[in-house]
Amino acid sequence: MRHFALTALPLALIACSADNATGQNAVLEKPFKTSVIADFDAPWAMTFLPDGRMLITEKADEMILFDPKNGTKIPIAGIPKVDSAGQGALMDVVLAPGFAENKNVYFSFSEAGPGGKGVALATGRFDQASDGTTKLDGVKVIFRASPYVDGNGHYSGRIAFSPDGKYLFFTNGERQKFDPAQAPKSTLGKVLRLNLDGTAAAGNPLAAKGFHPAVWSYGHRNLLGIAFDKDGRLWEQEMGPKGGDEVNLIKPGLNYGYPLASNGSHYDGRDIPDHKAGDGFEAPKVWWNPVISPGGLVYYSGDLFPQWKDSLFIGGLSSQALVRVKLDGENAAKADQWDMGARIREVEQGPDGALWLLEDGGQGSRGRLLKLTPVG
Question: What b/e string do you get for 208-235 counting C-beta neighbours within 10 Å, with b at 16 or more?
């Protein structure tokens, strides 16, 4: 395992502030200090335990219990076999509602199975023995994407619980197969609403129309972030094709267009019709071209950066950026884009309101865990 260092990076001076009305960019100082807390091997996701420790997933197959106070890293046993080829990974990790009592952890991962590969959703009980040995006990897969197909891309696999704790929302990417995003019986290219045991929730809006009973919305590409805001709205970000990265307000039963509509184009140059009024598809609230390659997503509700309350923060992969989107009810607008000098895979809000980032660990990034706090 790599050693950690509590060091502050120099404050970089250049960032991009997008003026939504003019499209102009301004030069400004970063309003945060960046501290390097630890280094990991291609980390993918993180979540905080009630005591301030963290669960961090690494791409290959490792989940780690990490203590940011002293740098201790403890591998967690019980993780199923992960197929990490290409974009495959041990993916998201989220604590169950009522974790303080039930100790349940939900996580997603890519696996090989009959007919190909797909993303699976699993749960297990966090268990740490007196000698420090840690495992997820009773791990079981409670949901698998359908169908499993060949290829190593666009698994998605993000998890969010409804504010009332009754439902689990799970993203399934369209696996670079295009058409499944519109196919009713497939879960690919969809946002799903499940019960906590992984079964399809009753009352999902498209079941009566012949869709897979878990489908909540469809017409998506590679959904790498979902988060609820303070008023219970569900926001989602996804990678578009060549151009057209999106932030969407997810509403039940709506078709978000892909691959029939997108503000980007196919990588082979073929055009995709842009979103336009009256086309029958729900258009994104915000979109980017050139792309930012969005990774993780978090809704900010903390007090440490009060000026950023009611914002979404997005990790930028190819853009090597931290991106802020300002929310206003059902509307959203580009706000800030800070150059982080590395691919940012994940963004999380810490218990004290600090922002925590995970570098991707690929294509020149080092896989570091960063903590952002106010300057001064």
Answer: eeebbbbbbbbbbbbbbbbbbbeeebbb
